[in-house]
Amino acid sequence: MRANGPLRLLLLLAVVLSVGCTSPVEPVRSPAKPPVPALAPYYAQEPAWVDCDDGFECAKIQVPLDYAKPEGERIHLSLIRLRTHSDRRIGSLLLNPGGPGGSGIQYARAAATVVSPEVRERFDVVGFDPRGVGESTPVRCLTPGEIDSYVGLDGTPEEAHEVSALERGAKAFAAGCAAKSAKLLPHVGTVNAARDMDVIRAVVGDPKLTYLGKSYGTHLGATYAELFPSNVRALVLDGAVDPALAPLEVNSTQAEGFEVALQAFLADCFEDGACPFRNRTAAPALDELHELLRQADAKPLGNKLDDGRAIGESWALLGIVTPLYDKNSWPALREAIRQAFEGDGTGLLRLADLLIDRRKDGSYSNQTEANMAVNCVDKRYPRTRDVFAGAAVKAARQAPRFGEYVMWGSLPCAYWPVEAAEHKPLTAKGAAPILVVGTERDPATPFRWAQAMASQLASGKLLAFDGDGHTAYRTGSRCVDASIDRYLISLEVPPEGTRCPKITD
């Protein structure tokens, strides 16, 4: 399962502001010393920035396909920036929205929403699509129809033939990536993406990195700090993951996080007259939801999109998961569940499409493929179906709605054609203070993950938020926003034990 923030939901709500007509401040390039001499040509690149609408500039740079062979084949990274107009410019703020597989290009285009005005005044906002993602050299694996079929497989199998179908789908996913992206697959992991970030830091002219990473982007940021501790200026790691967890532990813990978020959604729903559940207490309402999913498993819900997709249990579950990332989307989930109780799954299907970036014409970004590719090379998953089956049974006991579904979602990694990287602890010893942010009822990256990352990083400092939804910055908490802004601008770390209060209406 992915740990990315609700990027598509955010972009639907974002209003990207046009810049004024005053001249932006020209960055001052600092001499960049590469970690090894052979990388000097990459660090010395001067991007050819061109206008790409709404005040943004875009460019492409080159990085090595294989950092062990910097003189060998090259791939490209796509960058975007929104330059500041202030003479108080500090430098660049590099963004990553999570995933893995989320587009930093799209995320940066929502700068007016995802970054405060105070921070935008002091920094050029810079986004990039990591290697393997989107407008950078992308991973390709499946056709749109094949992704539809894979996502629609029964993720809570009860019969042997359903398990076999999952196995065939997982093998086909892995084989498709091997056939279409064989050269790139061994090199799409987080370590190489972090090395790319240091090249970006150099080419935009910053002596040290200032970074905002959400969800999986926290792992990317922590990996950067591990590789380049002396190059850290300020890193905000919001919605943190726990780098020490084994991959199946990640899945089971995330499933538990969705259960917590579902309970919070229900409590909120019961206060609204439009809540579609007959019962107004959690246990019987969960029984109603269980019955809805059971019926969808037996007979697909109606689909008014008329695109040929059968809305079975997996599509319905994905539609429920998606708005749990963002409390502002809970009204949409209420309405989609109401429709589903009446036999119409279209609302849930539309929500599911947001998370996996399926477009109205049936095409996809490569987010789903890149997500799987990075996850499967970053961590060593079990290489047999039976281990997944046992883990799914255990996860279902801990997280009855989501445990099996989340666990089986990583099955392609059992058949991945590339050996995964060996796990190494992330401590970032020698780095400047790093701000780790955790939301206490985060569905995708549970709060204890933020606690774990902050304790593992030698200079990690935890900022807690008594909130719902995935990630904390720019979600409505003035306390969170002010704490992060002070850190990014003035390098002032919140006092030990800071806990931002729940947002009240």
Describe the structure.
This protein has 19 helices and 10 strands. It has 505 residues and is α/β, with parallel strands linked by helices. The protein folds into 2 domains: 48-137 and 207-244 and 425-500, Rossmann fold (3-Layer(aba) Sandwich); 144-180 and 253-356 and 382-415, no CATH class. It has a 10-stranded mixed β-sheet with strand order 1-2-3-5-4-6-7-8-9-10, with helices on both faces. It is globular and about 60 Å long.
Task: Summarize the structure in short.
The chain is α/β, with parallel strands linked by helices and 505 residues long. The chain has two domains: 204 residues, Alpha/Beta hydrolase fold, catalytic domain (Rossmann fold, 3-Layer(aba) Sandwich); 175 residues, no CATH class. It contains 19 helices and ten strands.
- Main pleated-sheet profile: 10 strands, mixed
Succession of helices and strands: HHEEEEHHHEHHHEHEHHHHHHHHEHEHE
Task: Please count the helical segments.
Answer: 19
Number of domains: 2
The CATH topology of the largest domain is given as Rossmann fold
CATH class assignment of the largest domain: Alpha Beta
CATH architecture of the largest domain: 3-Layer(aba) Sandwich
> Which regions are unreliable across 5 or more consecutive residues at pLDDT < 50?
10-23
Average pLDDT for all residues:
93
Quote the beta fraction: 5-15%
CATH superfamily of the largest domain: Alpha/Beta hydrolase fold, catalytic domain
Radius of gyration: 22 Å
